[in-house]
Amino acid sequence: MKKLIVVRHGYSVTNASNRFTGQMDVSLTEIGYLQADALAKYLVKNEKIDKIVTSDLSRAVNTALPTARALGLPIHQTPKLRELGMGIWEGMLAADVRRDYADLVAQRAKDATVPCPGGESFRDMFVRVKDAIDEILRDEADTVLTVTHGGAFRCIDCIADGGDFTDAQRYKNVDNASITVFLIENGRMVRTLYNFTDHLKDGTTADRELL
Predict the structure, then answer these.
(1) Other C-beta atoms lying within 10 Å of the C-beta of residue 9
(2) What are residue 76's phi and psi, to 5 degrees?
């Protein structure tokens, strides 16, 4: 039976400063690197991973790197698993965006086709993430580790329930470096583990952020 293990990237520098990150290529914090090591120890012990696919942004790649090294597997990178492209909002404090663009933020919350200024709409992200997941599910590898971002995970979570882009925005973020496992049964993605963080301890937990 095919298994998809989905991990949100580790704690990043813009997570720590509560800034909208989007597709900015920012680094992990020290906590984020510790989370990546803790993730690897857990996955190597508890899972038999055949393939690793990540977003091509470094915070996702570096979250997967300790696992890839431990297992001797390459990391396959794709821009389809990137975070939402947030345009001019990228790098801005979340509080400033909500204050200065209050009307647009409210409009986007109601309509998934409305883009960030200079960036993507939630529909745009959903379409490319779904394409990436369809490719992964067609792959011959039995167990695939996928490392992605908060917004992209919300799309995957929605896809598992059979929803479309109009539903995806109501899904919640999971924690940094958390593990969610889906078994593929008759073409359906069935959750067997959700937002698992027991592997994160001894200074490897952090407050969640938005994107």
Answers:
(1) 31
(2) -90, 120
**In this structure, are residues 190 and 182 in contact, taking their beta carbons and an 8 Å threshold?**
yes
Q: So which residues are the catalytic ones?
A: 9, 83
Query: The tokens of 133 are what?
Result: 């997941």
Are the beta carbons of 207 and 160 closer than 8 angstroms?
A: no
For residues 39 and 49, the answer to whether their CB atoms sit within 8 Å is no
Measured distance CA(102)–CA(117) in Å, rounded: 13
Question: Distance between alpha carbon 194 and the CA centroid of its chain, in Å?
Answer: 13
* Burial of 73: CB neighbours in 10 Å, binned 0-12, 13-18, 19+: middle
With residues binned 3-state (H G I as helix, E B as strand, rest as coil), the percentages for the chain, rounded to 5, are: 40, 20, 40
Q: Residues 142, 3: contact at Cβ < 8 Å?
A: yes
**66: its two tokens:** 């300790």
pLDDT tens-digit readout, 71-130:
999 999 999 999 999 999 999 999 999 999 999 999 999 999 999 999 999 999 999 999
Q: What is the pLDDT of residues 155-209, one digit of tens each?
A: 999 999 999 999 988 999 999 999 999 999 888 999 999 999 999 986 566 554 4
Report the CATH number of the 3-196 domain: 3.40.50.1240
Whole-angstrom distance, CA of residue 55 vs CA of residue 160:
19
Q: Which residues neighbour 185 within 8 Å (Cβ) at sequence distance 6 or greater? A: 1
